[in-house]
Amino acid sequence: MKKEVKEEKFLKTGIEGFDELLGEGIPIGSSVLIEGGPGNGKTIFCLNLLKNFCNRGKKVLFMSFEEPEGRLREHLENIGINYLDLEKKGLIYLKRFNALDIARSVEALLSEAKKELLIDIQPVLIPKNFNPDIVLIDSLSSISSAFSGESSRFRIYMEQLFRYLEAHKITSFLIREVANPTHIGTNFVEQGEAVSFLSDGIIILYNVLRKNGIRERALEILKLRGINIKRRIVSFEIKNKQIFVVYPKKVLKGDYLLT
Ligand SMILES: Nc1ncnc2c1ncn2[C@@H]1O[C@H](COP(=O)(O)OP(=O)(O)O)[C@@H](O)[C@H]1O
Ligand SMILES: [Mg+2]
Q1: CA of 21 to the centre of ligand 2 (A)
Q2: What is the DSSP string of 44-79?
Q3: Are 64 and 97 contacting, i.e. CB atoms less than 8 angstroms apart?
Q4: Residue 2 has what DSSP assignment?
Q5: I need a labelling partner for 161 at 20 to 30 A (CA). Which of 29, 169, 184, 253 fits?
Q6: pTM score
Q7: Ligand nearest to the CA of 45
Q8: Are β-strands 171-177 and 26-27 bridged in parallel, bridged antiparallel, or unpaired?
């Protein structure tokens, strides 16, 4: 008898309250931008994802362009992730990258390719011998800043990256730090434009400023291709041990400014 293999199509995040906003889940193979200002919780959100996915036996690659590996490992310990254990099981690959090195390698690849727009980004980004189900990148903004004055190169690089992830059915969460919530007004910001078009989903983490000077945290799923998301801005908290808790029914009300 033919054994029925049910292919998994959607991914739940496992973040408390968040999946209620999502419907079926995140379609496997999607690339999702995690946007927000500094301190809004982007890195912690991704670390929560990492923990939940690894606990379910998924292979996760965490690429950091910001914090050194040592500090990241401490971060993981704080959040309750047993790095060594997961590493032994082959579920986690934590790597610190230098954005300038990446920019230089892309430069070299592009000149080799004689301006052909197809370059093989695998060697400059994805470690050999590790085939991740999920890739987390912290952050596209640091990569972008290494391509200073070379926005077309950054764009080419991003197109290649998204193509690679899609071809390998890798679900990715890509952090993008933005000074202002770019989707609220009409001002589209510099190099962000390309990645916004390329991505399948956008999650925005806000720092809410109330008139009385109190700050709160809120988030929304702005878009997710193929999914009927709940379109609302809702509260969240970062609890002890940097655990993310979303309140899907607590819609933001009253007078506030999103930052
Ligand atoms: N253990 C903790 N408990 C509660 N809040 C924390 C804890 N650690 C960090 N934070 C909060 O998390 C925020 C930093 O989140 P982070 O993910 O590093 O931001 P981003 O990556 O968006 O710059 C800070 O605003 C800080 O107040
Ligand atoms: Mg961060």
Answers
A1: 23
A2: HHHHHHHHHHHHTT--EEEEESSS-HHHHHHHHHHT
A3: yes
A4: P
A5: 184
A6: 0.91
A7: 1
A8: unpaired
Res. 21: pLDDT tops 70 = yes
**Rounded distance, CA 138 to CA 67, Å?**
9
pLDDT number for residue 122:
63
DSSP sequence for 80-124: T--HHHHHHTT-EEEEE--HHHHHHHHHHHHHHTTT-S----HHH
Task: From the CA of 138, give the closest atom in ligand 1.
Answer: 21
pLDDT digits (tens, 9 = 90+) for 105-132: 877 777 776 555 555 666 567 777 889 9
pLDDT at 185: 43
Ligand 1 closest atom vs CA 45 = 17
Structure confidence at residue 187 (pLDDT): 43
Q: Ligand 2: distance of its center to the CA of 138 in Å?
A: 7
* Confidence at residue 1, expressed as pLDDT on a 0 to 100 scale: 55
Q: Does 155 contact ligand 1 (Cβ within 6 A)? A: no
- Tokens representing 215? 């700050």
Mean pLDDT of 17-30: 96
Average the pLDDT over 36-56 and give the result. 95
What is the residue extent of each domain of the chain?
14-206+216-258
Nearest-CA residue for atom 9 of ligand 1: 242
Given this structure, which CATH class describes domain 14-206+216-258?
alpha beta
The residue behind tokens 């002890």 is 240
Which residue has its alpha carbon closest to ligand 1 atom 24? 39
